[in-house]
Write a structure and sequence with these properties.
This protein has helices at residues 2-24, 35-42, 50-64, 72-89. By secondary structure, it is mainly α.
Amino acid sequence: MRYLIIAVAIVALIWVFFRWLLRASPPVAGGKMTVAEAYEILGLGPGATVEEVKQAHSRLILKLHPDSGGSTYLAIKLNQAKDLLLKHYK
């Protein structure tokens, strides 16, 4: 019985640690992005054209998409940046 209590306590500690670890990682879609951040994420300057925004997004998403070994977080940020800048031009 004593070993069962110890095992349950260890599992609970591991569970709490991983919950904390997930909470400490970057948010998946958190916060509002500014126009300046969007330009920076895409590697562009404030004078970039709509076509340059689309080209930069395409180039980066090919490299950073989860299907290409990238991360979901980066793909989401790239898509947010592109969407924000395209709305900004309208």
